[in-house]
Write a structure and sequence with these properties.
Blueprint: E1 4-10, H1 34-71, H2 79-88, H3 97-103, E2 112-115, H4 122-130, E3 136-140, H5 144-163, E4 174-180, H6 187-194, H7 196-200, E5 205-211, H8 216-219, H9 246-252, H10 255-264, H11 271-282, H12 290-300, H13 310-326, H14 328-341, E6 343-353, H15 356-371, E7 385-388, E8 399-402, E9 406-408, H16 418-423, E10 431-437
Parallel strand pairs: 2-3, 2-5, 3-4, 5-6
Antiparallel strand pairs: 1-4, 6-10, 7-8, 8-9, 9-10
Length: about 450
């Protein structure tokens, strides 16, 4: 689809106990029998198991919190910024917004910026607001419905800024804004349609953002098939023009391939049982709605409530199917290389991931990009040039990895602050990594 020019504007910048009745009869002594002893042993064994499980759960939570403390954003949480953008864009609250803005404050003026996953344009609008010097903006999204919403927000924002009448501010230039219904792996093609120099590497862009999260406006639409809690068709396509759906995978793909998807993409420990039940369901008409799939998972799970029960398993199964339908992991790796190629010297690429599969790819690809292919994630980090950062303008980038082609500004990813998690639970698994080209 051809690029759609948005607008060109001259920017101005959460029972009580009752007392027992008194006993009126004398209690007769109880003589313990064999069955009582067996019952006591069983009860003690059950209590022991429950206590052990509780201890394991506490240890796991303590470890998770320890790891989070190591990666939590050190930047002060801007409640005003968060509130302003979360109220304006009810469809989706942009995660790690303050941290994303901080990632692009340096080292150069942000005159050109690409948002590869436009969505409701929350990040994009904050970037435009923070960088009045921006001259070129490109928004991309494979989901045309999301792109329409984001485009509308951008048009309204630019019109408002234009009408504010700040023509005399010399810092602000004329912004050319474009939107494209394209997967971010085609970033070179999109940039070439706007300016050939941006695609061939003679100039490049100053900043690129990829937010890999599912937006609320996608999850909340039952007809898209992404939600575990809403009944709808087994679709799960980000691009409505794509042909492969989750329905086809569940009802037609070979049994071994279904198992591979559940194991590798969902990281589901019980993948073999889920695989057998899916194949068995084919003999009874198959699975044709998200409700059918959820009921199958519920029947398998002994615990039927809460995140420790069927919901957790269902979430992993849905994740596996969505990744397979949209070929997300291979697309991500290819796109990271393409985006890096499109950066200008000193330009930065920021990526927000939401599960370990994505984050692993981002981490390893960033290392490949700065050192050249062949650097293994398990390699001794003595081979990497590490720089500890203290008392600098960018304290959120606590440790960096330098290479011949660039710098990874986030040896450990940045995760949301406790304040942001309290306001938006969907952000709790987000991780931000940033790389800078040299």
């Amino acid at each position: 689809m051809a690029a759609r020019r948005v607008l060109s504007f001259h920017l101005h910048h959460r029972a009580p106990a009752h007392p027992l009745a008194a006993a009126t009869a004398i209690a007769t002594p109880h003589r313990r029998g064999k069955h009582d002893a067996v019952s006591c042993k069983a009860a003690a064994k059950s209590k022991g198991k429950a206590k052990a499980k509780g201890g394991e759960r506490q240890q796991r939570r303590a470890l998770e919190e320890h790891l989070k403390r190591r990666t939590r954003s050190a930047a002060a949480f801007d409640a005003d910024l968060y509130g302003r953008h979360s109220h304006t864009h009810a469809h989706h609250v942009p995660v790690l917004l303050g941290e994303v803005l901080a990632a692009f404050r340096r080292p150069r003026p942000l005159r050109s910026f690409v948002d590869c996953t436009l969505g409701a344009a929350g990040h994009s609008l904050a970037m435009m607001e923070a960088h009045p010097e921006m001259e070129l903006y490109i928004g991309m999204d494979v989901d045309p419905f999301a792109l329409d919403i984001g485009r509308g927000h951008i048009e309204a924002f630019l019109a408002l800024r234009e009408s504010s009448g700040r023509e005399n501010d010399t810092l602000q230039g004329k912004l050319r804004a474009y939107t494209h219904v394209k997967n971010f792996k085609y970033i070179k093609q999109v940039l070439g349609s706007v300016d050939e120099g941006l695609a061939v590497g003679s100039s490049g862009v100053d900043g690129i953002l990829i937010d890999l999260g599912m937006s609320s406006m996608q999850v909340n639409k039952s007809n898209r098939g992404f939600s575990v809690l809403q009944d709808g068709p087994l679709d799960m396509r980000m691009d409505p023009k794509a042909t492969l759906t989750a329905d086809e995978i569940l009802n037609s793909w070979p049994e071994l391939e279904v198992g591979r998807i559940l194991r590798d993409y969902g990281e589901e420990s019980n993948w073999q049982s889920v695989q057998k039940q899916i194949v068995k369901a084919r003999t009874m008409g198959g699975l044709h709605s998200t409700g059918d799939l959820v009921k199958l998972i519920q029947r398998m799970c002994t615990i039927s409530r809460g995140r420790q029960g069927w919901i957790k398993t269902a979430t992993r199964v849905f994740q596996a199917l969505r990744i397979a339908v949209n070929d997300e992991l291979r697309t991500l790796e290819d796109a990271l290389h393409s985006c890096y190629d499109c950066l200008a010297t000193g330009g930065r690429l920021a990526v927000i991931s939401f599960h370990s599969l994505e984050d692993r790819i981002v981490k390893q690809t960033f290392l490949d990009l700065i050192h050249g292919d062949g650097v293994d994630e398990a390699d001794d980090e003595d081979d990497l040039e590490l720089t500890d950062i203290d008392n600098e303008d960018e304290p959120w980038f606590k440790q960096r990895v330098h290479g011949k082609n660039g710098t990874v500004l986030t040896k450990r990813p940045i995760t949301p602050s406790q304040e942001e998690e309290a306001l938006n639970q969907r952000c709790r698994s987000a991780k931000l990594r940033v790389i800078q080209k040299t």
